[in-house]
Amino acid sequence: MALLHGSWIHPALSPRGSQILAGREGAQGDSFFFLWGETWRTVPYAEPCLTVPSHPLGLSSAELSHTLQGLLQSKAIALPSALETALNAEGQKRRKQSKTAESVQWQERGVGLLSRWKEGSATPIHSATVPDAGDEVCLFPSIVQGLRLDATTATDLLLALPLVADLNKEEGWLGDDLLFWSHVTRWSLDLLVRSKFLPALVSNGDGAHAEWQPLLDSALDQTRFRQMSEQMPSICRCYAIESNPDYLATPLPVPANALLFASLQQLIDRQVRQGIGSPEILDALKGLRDKDISQWLAALETSTGRFSLSEEGCDRLTTALNTWTQPIQATLSQHRSFRTVFELRPPLPPSRSWTVTYGLQATDDFSCWISADAIWKPVAIAFQSRGAP
After folding, report:
1. Domain spans of the chain, in order of start
2. Is 0.90 topped by the overall pTM?
3. I need a labelling partner for 106 at 20 to 30 A (CA). Which of 294, 301, 326, 339 fits?
């Protein structure tokens, strides 16, 4: 039975930003979800090579299409309509462009896989296989064929996946990475229900971009973010953002926290845009006198979020947004490990006076407390060592 894999890929996380080659299909700057699969088969001896080899266990486009259609017919999963249409088009004619070409595309992409290294060559290991203790393993790139899904199609697919993989059957088809992203997608729904999102402005060389970002301002969400970053399957971080099959190089792993936050942003952004589209909003925007703010608010509703903005207008709008979000700036950081808290301590007999102290408390462990005395003591010592009596 085939095992399906997939992960979000964000060109903006590349060192060169959006000006990259995303696979063999050409330059693409938008984030997307890449879906592929692998199966059990005999792996031939791998000769040493100077280019990125194809994954010997990877499913071809025809095999992946057959696997997904089989899952659909067995009612194991409900596929999004755009993906189902693309699979039907694949069965009719591989190279024929369908109406869903923009949302679903066949693509080849490099991914760093755990491989056995022997006699100067690397052989990929099936993800469900545990390497032997004596095996020499490494991370080695391979080319896999799969489907590139836009944010809307990917969200529908991930929401249709089961929450638990079937470990009792040998014919399991859900990879750990897909299972992980299905839980992240459901978390994004929880954030939406609690209105944990904010509008934002991103400017780059291509102009301005209005987007919706997640707001992780509670201890619960920050703890969940940290735990999910730590539990993210390693394969999610090893996709080639800058793919070049002629250049043999293992993709550098993307930081887990950056990948998770960018993926949450995509999920939140797409679902908010689908929920706020209405003629009433556009009519209300026509009454605004500030053209820059009006364009930004209108872009928050469009599918792309792109709009033209002068450099002066961008600076002014950025300043206004920073002022507006100033009270929660500390919670917008992805690496906030501590928070400032006050503690009310009851009196100790015979005293009747309550005591208020303050210090730092870990966001993921409330029992971890650093008092103000402990925080300031090293500073005082350093100050006294510089000539204080």
Report:
1. 3-194+234-252, 338-384
2. no
3. 301
